[in-house]
Amino acid sequence: MISAASSPESRDLLRFLTAGSVDDGKSTLIGRLLHDSGAVFEDELAAVHRTSKSRGSEFDPSLLTDGLKAEREQGITIDVAYRYFSTTRRKFIIADTPGHEQYTRNMVTGATTADLAVLLVDARKGILTQTRRHLYTAWMLGIRNIILALNKMDLVNFDPEVFHRVKNAFLEYAAPLHFEDLQFVPISALDGDNVAKPSERMPWYAGPSILNVLETVETRRSSALQNLRFPVQLVLRPNQDVRVYAGQIASGSISVGMEVVTLPSRQRTRIERVFLHTTELQEAFAPMSVAVSLRDHIDLGRGDLLCDAQAEPPEGRRFRAKLIWMSPAPMSLHEPYLMKHMTQMVCMRVTNLYHKLDINTLDELPATGLKANEIGEVSLETHKPVFCDPYHVNKVTGSFIVIHPIQNNTVAVGIIVDNEPLPDAKGTNLSLEEPIFPSVNHRGLAVWMTGLSGAGKTTICKAVYTELLSRGIRVEMLDGDAIRQHISRELGFSKADRVENIRRIAYVAQLLTRNRVVALVSAISPYRETRAEVRAEIGRFMEVYVNAPVEVCEQRDPKGLYKRARKGEIRGFTGLDDPYEPPSFPEVECRTAEESVKESIDKVVAAILAAIQ
Amino acid sequence: MNRRLSHLEALESESIHILREVRAEFSRPVILYSIGKDSSVMLRLAQKAFYPEKIPFPLLHIDTTFKFREMIEFRDRIAREYNVKLIVHTNQEAIAAGANPFTLGTSKCCALLKTKALLDALSEHQVDAAIGGARRDEEKSRAKERIFSFRDPFGQWDPKNQRPELWNLYNGRIEKGQSVRVFPLSNWTEVDVWEYIEREAIPVVPLYFAKPRKAIVRGKLVILPEHNMPQQPGDSEETVVCRMRSLGCSYCSGAIPSQADSVSAIVKELKAFRRSERENRLIDHDQEGSMEVKKREGYF
Ligand SMILES: Nc1nc2c(ncn2[C@@H]2O[C@H](COP(=O)(O)OP(=O)(O)O)[C@@H](O)[C@H]2O)c(=O)[nH]1
Hints:
- Chain A is α/β, with parallel strands linked by helices.
- Chain A has four domains: 13-216, Rossmann fold; 229-308, Translation factors (Elongation Factor Tu (Ef-tu), domain 3); 315-430, Beta Barrel (Elongation Factor Tu (Ef-tu), domain 3), CATH 2.40.30; 445-612, 3-Layer(aba) Sandwich (Rossmann fold).
- In chain A, the strands form five sheets. In chain A, strands 7, 8, 9, 11, 12, 13, 15 and 16 form an eight-stranded antiparallel beta sheet that branches.
- Mean pLDDT of chain A is 87; it is low at 1-8 and 425-435.
- Chain B is α/β, with parallel strands linked by helices.
- Chain B is 35% helix and 15% strand.
- Chain B contains nine helices and ten strands.
- Chain B has helices at residues 7-25, 37-50, 69-82, 92-96, 101-104, 106-124, 190-200, 263-272, 290-297; strands at residues 29-32, 59-62, 86-89, 129-131, 148-151, 179-182, 211-218, 221-223, 236-244, 255-257.
- In chain B, the strands form two sheets. In chain B, strands 3-2-1-4-6-5 form a six-stranded mixed beta sheet. A four-stranded antiparallel beta sheet of chain B has the order 8-7-9-10, with no helix packed on it.
- In chain B, β7 (211-218) and β8 form a beta hairpin.
- In chain B, α7 packs antiparallel against α8.
- The chains are: A alpha/beta, B alpha/beta.
- Chains A and B meet through α2, β2, β3, α4 and β9 of A and α1, α2 and α7 of B.
- The structure holds guanosine-5'-diphosphate.
- The site of guanosine-5'-diphosphate has 17 residues of chain A, from α1.
């Protein structure tokens, strides 16, 4: 079904945004488009005719879109209203962004999903500061196709002079921004001239109507032609032998047999299958939602990325970005925030604010903070590496939203300007090992996650780590596997060696705990007695039983260990030929076969927060 | 290769992305299953989104007990065929007290049998994300609805506290007790829904297809009588070739006279026929702006 060529429905989709100052005629134009393309139902139309009459006009198309004004009066936040119409050639989604207060926020929101912008200008007023603001905002968000609709031509006697004057002024202003396609259309939205039909009253204009441009314009949709970026959204595992990665292709195309690299683990493999439901595909491209499987057994999770083996995105923890601030509470420098970037959530903080932008003059102003509706250029730091491209190169990998870690609201919109921050003294002298977030006042705690291999300890541990970090808590991870690669390298899996390994982890955990750090330990730690000793020794201790039946763990087998143990390659494997003694009274129990990962994480985080107050 | 998606493919891809985000970011989602055409499309999308796993969310049907018989049969068959868990919830207390649309009036009846029942079911099952099939083109006032719509712990929509939605980056973070309604079909229109049903050969309730039916004609309304609907003076009993345009309770969703007896005929009819989808429903006309009021109270 998915191949566009084979579909009987060959209409495509164009998303565009309309922007204009109050009373330039935006509602009228949208109403006109809906009406003249036949998207308005007869009963709605009859109602509009009645209201128009009662207000003393023949037919007021703006009544077709009315609906935002009342809400604005009630103080309801409307950033965008979406309207739909279609012709035989295309389906259109209009993002109608109110031009009143909050204009930057509104227009940015509408622009993130638009391919094209229609800017309205009142012929009597010509280009205003707002027009420039709209043009710049569209440009900043990557829109390269613009229609300038010069409205109310009926009120200037359809004078071509007016049209040419505005056009030239606009061209001059837009020149440095390099738009791919700028179209100028003189219209009367009220009467419909050059909206859906050519105007008899403007014979001097030979160009297309607005609808004509919308139907035929080729917007820059190069995303399918770029390098592959496939963020893993979900891992689907219908049974132990199948591991499928589901996601929406962010850019480029993915095909069977193609060589890809996994990030951040940097393993190379080839694509085995690309499919959606029962349809097998040879190739899929952005923005298709598909599922893929890999030739090799590689353990990926949500937030990981598949990329062209030849063209990896740069990796980094520091960036230069533009932030459009949206929250009523101003931005705080150095405070932790969460960044949602594709399918992953990481902690970040703003380390430097270079300047803010006066969107009317495009001047860069010195700034000490950012308030709602302001745009600033900043340097950012994330707590773990992020793979991104500049926004002007890739809209998906180059964009992110900023979320308040406690209030959970979306506080800002971000676009990556560059993978390197500007050189500055403050941002660059931190070493990678240094904890990057300031800390709140709290006590230390050793959080001991015990359970079978594959029960979900590492997954929970990592997520809890991010969550705590985002709340400004000092936290460290002690992962059983990592410890074995470092301080316990010479130890094996005999009972004595296991006990010794745990003793070493406990010692490190205790040091951390004493220094008011939350130490997250994930280790199978199968013996009840050993854990009891550790508890007594550390004191500030919390046992988290990550509980999943051994059959489930074996089915998951994320590291392929159960398979190897079954083949006899590993002896004394906990759960198979070595015992696991479950805790009798754990502080928290996560039943990962029954509850969702999110439920488990929430439980653990809540218990930790309560214990470290 | 033609690297361009048709509008249906673009919509499908967006909706699948949304459904997968819900699975990744919420603990206890349900699909609000209304048995209608939009729900049927939603199920197919969910099937595609999670294949080769089965649909990971249970279906929640709020049964007012005044639904068409054919709808209930269809519901049970579909739940079996898709192999999904079906939760049916009814406000038993109100039914026992005799609630019905004929004597209570439609808006009171809706408040008890739909809105209250829904809120009760969501809290009983501790649902943190309720996936609904509502579309923005259904009604003018829905045009500015978010795809992720936040609800306070009482299930109320707080219009002043909605989050901006940028690109395809949805912010699904909530506190315990809060929840979201998610509308993956926000950008679909009625015609898109039918075109997709045609393309994918999705089963829908036969009530959507025109055939001669015994009906009560009351002024402009054509009502298919079930559940011992009492007649009013002036009602006439007629056989009308008609179909349902949207499905709900038998009394409150009027039929439309139509000859469209197949999906392709419906698509053709809709492209020519220019009357709004909810015109024939009793419920929206009770009160000016009534959808808006219902939404605030927790109904869609
Ligand atoms: N004469 C004339 N009036 C127009 C035209 N377009 C809009 N208007 C009027 O300008 C006013 C503002 O229009 P409206 O669409 O509400 O503006 P919005 O605030 O941009 O949505 C209304 O009184 C419209 O009737 C036009 O092409 N010609």
